[in-house]
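Suppose you are handed a protein chain with no further information: no name, no annotation, nothing but its sequence. What can you learn? This example shows the usual starting point.
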Amino acid sequence: MPLDPAQRHQIEQDAISAAWEAERLAACDRAIALLREIADLERDDDGDVIIGTDADGHNDLMSRITAFLAANDQ
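A reasonable first move is to predict its three-dimensional structure. Written in structure tokens, the prediction is:
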């Protein structure tokens, strides 16, 4: 039995919502991974995280955080 237009529209909307929710959950998983990595970093005497750089002034973690924020700033 064919679906009526309202049912078809609802199924399409549900699929769009499910895809959006899956994307957001994946972004949350990536954010949690970054936060866990930050939590494992060395700390100074005050408990502040020490974020070091290489000889060229680059920091891979900061680059990944920047890329994550740029991709997920909605």
